[in-house]
Design the sequence.
């Protein structure tokens, strides 16, 4: 791979986040972008119908945002996570399995930097579409024990690949917990785990972003 362009973006509105990813995917320069969301938001996978409880006017009235991602997968919750976007030119000749293995294992090494042993799931049974990313088993996931910490999805563009993912740093923001149905929050609490919870330490999203950015190229080359 040529030299990586590494970007760390502070919180931006949800539409601006996804527009930036699409613009970078069109440039097709090897890029790692790490970012977080302000205000809190949910993102739906490409062409994913919203669940019945998610009605846009009251959601926005609560100061939350809603956006569709250019990649697939289930609904992701943002505001206490670190999001990652990886752009790789198709001329690099890397297969989908190689790309996704490299990204998922990079997230696994990030966990080890915090004293955690992560399980990387590259395949999963069943082909049905998932509704909620962090509470359902899916390919291209990172788990601590049996609980999901991160998930990734991919889309092919004319000149490159776009991989998008989310790694939970802290439990869901209170604004999201109040707006999401109690049964969904309960299942997320049971089936997902935040990095700070697993590490039993105070972990800040900016700190994790700097850690991942500083080691990205070396971890990628290791694959």
Sequence:
């Amino acid at each position: 791979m040529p030299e990586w362009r590494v970007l760390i973006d502070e919180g931006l509105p949800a539409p601006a986040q996804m527009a930036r990813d699409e613009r970078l995917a069109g440039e097709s320069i090897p890029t790692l972008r790490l970012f977080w969301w302000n205000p809190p938001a949910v993102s739906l996978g490409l062409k994913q119908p919203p669940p019945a409880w998610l009605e846009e006017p009251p959601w926005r009235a609560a100061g939350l945002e809603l956006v569709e991602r250019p990649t697939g997968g289930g609904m992701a919750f943002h505001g206490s996570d670190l999001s990652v976007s990886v752009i790789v030119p198709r001329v690099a000749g890397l297969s989908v399995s190689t790309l996704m293995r490299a990204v998922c294992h990079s997230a696994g090494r990030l966990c080890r930097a915090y004293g955690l042993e992560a399980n990387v799931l590259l395949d999963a049974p069943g082909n049905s579409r998932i509704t909620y990313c962090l509470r359902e088993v899916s390919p291209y996931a990172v788990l601590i024990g049996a609980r999901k910490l991160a998930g990734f999805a991919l889309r092919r563009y004319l000149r490159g690949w776009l991989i998008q993912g989310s790694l939970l740093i802290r439990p869901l923001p209170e604004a999201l917990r109040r707006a999401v149905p109690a049964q969904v929050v309960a299942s997320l609490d049971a089936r997902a785990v935040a990095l700070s919870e697993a590490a039993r330490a105070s972990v800040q999203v900016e700190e994790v972003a700097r850690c991942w950015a500083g080691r990205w190229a070396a971890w990628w080359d290791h694959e």
About this structure: Strands lie at 5-12, 31-37, 41-44, 65-68, 76-78, 81-89, 119-121, 141-144, 147-156, 160-168.
